[in-house]
Design brief:
Elements: H1 5-8, E1 13-19, H2 26-37, E2 44-50, H3 57-67, E3 71-75, H4 82-92, E4 97-100, H5 112-120, E5 125-130, H6 137-154, E6 166-169, H7 170-175, H8 186-193, E7 197-202, H9 217-235, H10 239-266, H11 275-303
Parallel strand pairs: 1-2, 1-4, 2-3, 5-7
Antiparallel strand pairs: 4-6, 5-6
Helix pairs in contact: 6-9, 10-11
The structure holds guanosine-5'-diphosphate and magnesium ion.
Magnesium ion binds next to loops.
């Protein structure tokens, strides 16, 4: 399944570039992209998503557009974040294959053809791996940790989930949702949807102009995002399985303790002052609460059910 012909209008590759205040880098990025992509010979487009920059980035994009019809641009009224920019870029990209990259010249456009070759080998998503990363260790060290944990939870071992440079078959971006700050987990969401995901080492350059736009906030948010991804991918259609299992364990534990206490009480031992009694009541209540939450979740899932929730690879007949 590729993008419908009317929509793709023959475009083979869309490069989606989310950016925020990268005015100095843009002209050079454009030159590098043209040098890297023209040998491919197939039609491509460069889609710049300016996420409310205040440094005149969009004027540069407008100028590039005037001299080259393959350039397209979208400007947000204010800053919404990288996931928002990617979501809008994905919705607008016409290419059969969509590549995302950072605008800060740290990702190398020369790597794009390599990513494409792996897509053509049959992968649905190829994620870049900054094997020799050119960033301070205050960033690379937490990143290592983040990648390990994500890999463990996701069951997908990638070295570098957060690389800006990635290639997607169009159907992948049609299927997986990008919202909140979930852009870091697109390979995970794709993997869980059943797409074939792999990684490929890519060159990485030190930042040339300006400075990094992400502070330490990225690390605190990361954990919650992982939790969200885990929950929405595995349990949105069956919330009772998650809440119910935990609830059942909790209720069972409380119930067991309750039986033990009752037995003591029947045999004449006073139990009114035992902390265990409190524990028993707490666990049983918690269990009932969790199971009810799961049931409410099921009602929501039931009324929101849609056929499109299931990603189809191919149809015959
Ligand atoms: N759309 C959007 N892009 C952003 C935002 N912040 C950074 N970017 C872009 O994301 C890419 C990576 O950002 P950068 O600051 O270099 O992050 P780092 O390389 O991980 O330190 C660059 O192309 C930035 O212009 C944002 O708030 N919105
Ligand atoms: Mg960067």
């Amino acid at each position: 399944m590729t993008a419908p012909a009317s929509e793709s209008n023959g475009t083979y590759l869309s490069v989606v570039i989310p950016l925020f205040n990268e005015v100095e880098s843009l002209p050079e990025l454009y030159r590098q992209l043209i040098v890297a992509l023209e040998p491919m010979v197939k039609p491509f487009e460069l889609l710049f998503i300016d996420d409310g920059s205040r440094d005149g980035s969009f004027d540069v994009i407008r100028r590039l557009k005037d001299q080259d019809a393959r350039v397209r641009g979208i400007q947000f009224l204010r800053n919404y974040g990288k996931s928002a920019a990617l979501a809008v870029g994905f919705a607008d990209a016409r290419g059969e294959i969509v590549v995302t990259m950072d605008a800060d010249l740290q990702d190398d456009p020369q790597e794009i053809l390599g990513l494409l070759s792996q897509i053509n080998e049959g992968y649905d998503l190829v994620s870049g791996w900054k094997q020799n990363r050119q960033d301070p260790f205050t960033k690379t060290l937490p990143s290592k940790f983040f990648n390990r944990i994500t890999g463990m939870v996701a069951g997908l071992r990638l070295h570098d989930f957060n690389c800006g440079l990635k290639a997607y078959r169009h159907e992948v971006i049609e299927t997986i949702p990008v919202y909140g700050e979930l852009h870091r987990y697109l390979p995970v969401l794709a993997h869980w949807s059943g797409f074939r995901v792999t990684e490929r080492p890519v060159r990485h350059h030190p930042r040339k102009y300006g400075q990094s736009k992400f502070g330490i906030g990225r690390f605190t948010h990361g954990f919650f995002d992982l939790l969200t991804v885990f929950f929405v991918s595995n349990y949105t259609r069956r919330p009772l399985h998650l809440f119910g299992s935990v609830g059942l364990v909790s209720f069972g534990l409380g119930f067991g303790v309750g039986i033990y206490l009752s037995w003591l009480w029947i045999n004449g031992t006073g139990i009114g002052t035992r902390p265990l009694l409190l524990f028993c009541v707490l666990m049983m209540l918690l269990g009932i609460q969790l199971i009810s939450m799961g049931l409410i979740g099921e009602m929501i899932a039931y009324s929101g059910r849609r056929v499109e929730d299931y990603a189809i690879r191919s149809r015959l007949g």
